[in-house]
Automatic annotation (TrEMBL), chain A:
<dbReference type="GO" id="GO:0006633">
    <property type="term" value="P:fatty acid biosynthetic process"/>
</dbReference>
<dbReference type="GO" id="GO:0005835">
    <property type="term" value="C:fatty acid synthase complex"/>
</dbReference>
<dbReference type="Pfam" id="PF01575">
    <property type="entry name" value="MaoC_dehydratas"/>
</dbReference>
<dbReference type="InterPro" id="IPR003965">
    <property type="entry name" value="Fatty_acid_synthase"/>
</dbReference>
<dbReference type="InterPro" id="IPR029069">
    <property type="entry name" value="HotDog_dom_sf"/>
</dbReference>
<feature type="domain" description="MaoC-like">
    <location>
        <begin position="7"/>
        <end position="101"/>
    </location>
</feature>
<dbReference type="InterPro" id="IPR002539">
    <property type="entry name" value="MaoC-like_dom"/>
</dbReference>
<protein>
    <submittedName>
        <fullName>Acyl dehydratase</fullName>
    </submittedName>
</protein>
<dbReference type="GO" id="GO:0004312">
    <property type="term" value="F:fatty acid synthase activity"/>
</dbReference>
Automatic annotation (TrEMBL), chain B:
<dbReference type="InterPro" id="IPR039569">
    <property type="entry name" value="FAS1-like_DH_region"/>
</dbReference>
<feature type="domain" description="FAS1-like dehydratase">
    <location>
        <begin position="8"/>
        <end position="125"/>
    </location>
</feature>
<protein>
    <submittedName>
        <fullName>MaoC dehydratase-like protein</fullName>
    </submittedName>
</protein>
<dbReference type="Pfam" id="PF13452">
    <property type="entry name" value="FAS1_DH_region"/>
</dbReference>
<dbReference type="InterPro" id="IPR029069">
    <property type="entry name" value="HotDog_dom_sf"/>
</dbReference>
Amino acid sequence: MHIGFHFEKIHKEEITHTQIVRYAGASGDFNPIHTVVPFGEKAGLGGVIVHGMMIMGFIGQAIDTWCASNDLVKFSTRFQTITRPGESITVSGLIVGETEHLWVCQAEAVNEHGEIKASAHFEVRK
Amino acid sequence: MNNQYEKMIGMQLEPFTYKVELSKVRELALAIDKNQLSLQKKEDIPPTFPTVIDYWGSPYSIFDFLGLNLEKTLHGEQEFEYFGKIKVGDDITVHGEIEDTYSKSAMNFIVIKQRFVNQEGETVVIGRSTLIEKQ
């Protein structure tokens, strides 16, 4: 591990409407902009959009494969653009800094066209 | 721009308690990746699990509480700081407050801070959610 180190990319399967419904049930976030197509259309979103927290969940899954989960001390995600069913997400990450006890890292979730969906900052114990 | 949420800064939300069940932990892991269960050790709780505690444990909707329009509100940012570990079987009490609000580019930003405290009185996670309401 060193500054500039790139973690192995995680490629996720295409997001389906079924997965969104499943995520709604798991998380308890039943906001209809995620699950009810006519509501998403009425809101001007052109249909349903994926929960931002599902994308953060993908990044969290990647971090869990990169680092021991006990070592994670901070994890923040900024949602950049909306994601729709049918998109496929890849999560990448790298170490950008360090302190005496921590690695300071960044991660990004992008779709198959390279569009950034979410950018994350996380810190793990050395 | 008028930000009607300014007067809510510092407002405390009613605390609530949620018991962490293995089935909900597995359900979240499977919703994130349906192949994940075979990889997952029983004690591993996804780092975004506090969101389950929030939505399933809270007796009220933050949207209703703030009077936010579901059609015009998006989740802009989420942060978690981990001070301890949430474990299956824990009773987690959530203390929420409206920490900040500001307006820019014709949007209102509302920051909600949540402190997740286990049955030993230990703060295990602090979460911050930024909601964005479009005008």
